[in-house]
Amino acid sequence: MAVPPLRTTGAPSGLLDVASPALVPMVEPAAATNPRTRLPHVIAWNLTRRCNLACAHCYISAGPWHSAAGELNTSTCKRILDEVLEVNPAPVLILSGGEPLLRADLEELAEHASAGGATVVVGTNGTRLTEARIRSLMAVGVKGVAVSIDSLDQRYHDRFRHGEGALGDTLAAVECLRARGLDFIVQTTVTRGNRGELAALAAWSAEHGAVAFNVYFVVPTGRGDRMRAMEPDENDAVLRDLVGLERIYRGRMMVRSKCQPQLMRHALAGDADSPLLNYETRCPCGIQYCRITPEGKVTPCPYTPVTAGDLTKASFGEIWDTSVVFQSLRTGALGGKCGRCEFRAVCGGCRARAYAEGHDLLGPDESCAYEPTGQVPLIQRRAVTYGTAFEAELDWAPEAAARLKAIPSFVRGVVTQRVEKFARERGYERVDLDVMVEVRRAMPVDFSKRLPFFLSKDGER
Ligand code: SF4
Ligand code: SF4
Ligand code: SF4
Q1: How far apart are CA 290 and CA 432, in angstroms?
Q2: How far is the centre of ligand 3, averaged over its atoms, from the C-alpha of 360 (Å)?
Q3: How far is the CA of 419 from the centre of ligand 3 (A)?
Q4: Coil, helix or strand at residue 17
Q5: d(CA 4, CA 392)
Q6: Which of 250, 271, 300, 436 could lock 286 by a disulfide, CB 3.0 to 4.6 Å apart?
Q7: Which tops the pLDDT comparison, 19 or 104?
């Protein structure tokens, strides 16, 4: 099926609706009969635009002035959750906002999703994350929390987040998370103002028990559109630093870039065994990842405003399978320098940035410092990466198979492959729980002390 390129003529401003004549139609009926070849392994859900903060870079332009009007109600959210679980019974579901803790039904929704098989995590600014709230989230099966810390300097953090006392409240939340034993990720948005602090932030995060340190690069969308982004060579320098930090904390805490898949180029240059290479990038948006807005629109990722479908008018499965936006991201050829780049199979550039800057979802990501030369052969991605299906070939004991099924679909292929490789190397013909315990340290992210939420099963730490 030929997929039209996704280009719009107007400047992006908030969510673009497919009803707009500037966009291609949302659903191409012929595609409805296509078999499902891609699964949504990770779904980010912005449950609200309300937020107690008003950060300078916020992609969804959240703030205290928004009301709950227009947000999907609890029963509609549950209906959508059921539709998501029908498409993928074991997704990672990121409940976010705005500030998701402002939704009184957050726990009810998390419980519904978790009981249905999703691995539920909550993305929050952390300022409202009291011990009582942590307990209630844990009680409904939430497996992890991502909190935002942009600097350990209160003046910087509070100014960037537009909230006096924000840093103090978030640091208090981290202490509670640690005390209660709920996994957490530290998320930092890098700018010229804090890039010199990343190593210290990583050290602080590791020391405080974070399972991951994610560094976000600003995408010029939402309020981020008003920020002056770092130059490509500055991005490059930060990415190089992150590859170094990843090596330092490997086995203890993951270190990754977000919205800057060019990290893969540096990971390849720095270390052929890097676990970062287990990620399937090209960027996963629309391929194994999507976002739901507070009003029920589906987009490729939180930073991409192009609407793939409307959950008040079509089911999640219909949109996932038939949206022209998703078809284009899955099968369309990249343009500009990303299209001729040797790293396009492992990087592919940020599609949200390409759209924000050139109104073309498949266009070049000009935040990248690399200029393809045409002299280097195409760099291939690993055969099995996160999100790739891998059919078991060995005999699995029922209890081992059940444990495998309980982990998120996102990592299942990589874990299956690793376990079988490990078993074969030792001459085991059958995988049972003993083999799984033995293989634990050989998993894609080698957490020597305990498994993070995306690899652990209830009760196993
Ligand atoms: S970035 Fe997060 S904390 Fe900041 S305004 Fe947006 S939703 Fe709120
Ligand atoms: S489009 Fe950009 S922001 Fe969205 S998932 Fe891909 S890399 Fe991340
Ligand atoms: S040119 Fe595009 S595909 Fe190549 S490294 Fe840069 S962002 Fe990635």
Answers
A1: 34
A2: 15
A3: 33
A4: coil
A5: 37
A6: 300
A7: 104
Please give the full DSSP string across 112-150, using - where no structure is assigned.
HHHHHT-EEEEEE-STT--HHHHHHHHHTT--EEEEE--
For the record, the structure tokens of 89 come out as: 């019974």
Write the single-letter amino acid at 58.
Answer: C
How many angstroms separate the Cα of 31 from the Cα of each of 39, 264, 318, 323?
Answer: 16, 32, 10, 8
Closest residue CA from atom 6 of ligand 1: 58
Q: Which residues, 6 or more positions from 26, have their beta carbon under 8 angstroms from its beta carbon? A: 18, 307, 308, 309, 310, 314, 319, 323, 324, 325
Which atom number of ligand 2 is nearest to the Cα of residue 283? 6
* Residue of 134, 148, 146 lying closest to 54 (CA atoms): 148
Q: Which pair of tokens denotes residue 408?
A: 């998120």
How far is it, in rounded angstroms, from Cα 128 to Cα 237? 34
Looking at ligand 2, which residue's alpha carbon is closest to its atom 8?
A: 259
Q: What are 219-246's pLDDT values in tens digits? A: 999 999 988 889 999 999 999 999 999 9
C-alpha–C-alpha distance, residues 295 and 272, integer Å: 43
Q: Tens digit of pLDDT for each residue in 14-49?
A: 333 222 222 222 222 233 344 577 889 999 999 999
* Rounded Cα distance, 404 and 398, in Å: 10
- What is the tens place of the pLDDT at every residue in 161-170? 999 999 999 9
Task: Scan for tokens 């993305």, then name that residue.
Answer: 123
259: alpha, beta or left, given left = phi > 0 and alpha = psi -120 to 50?
A: left
Cα–Cα distance for residue pair 117/158, rounded to 1 Å: 37
Question: What's the pLDDT score for residue 135?
Answer: 98
DSSP label at 359? S
Which atom, in ligand 2's list, is nearest to the CA of 219? 3
Q: Which helix (H) or strand (E) holds 435?
A: helix 433-439
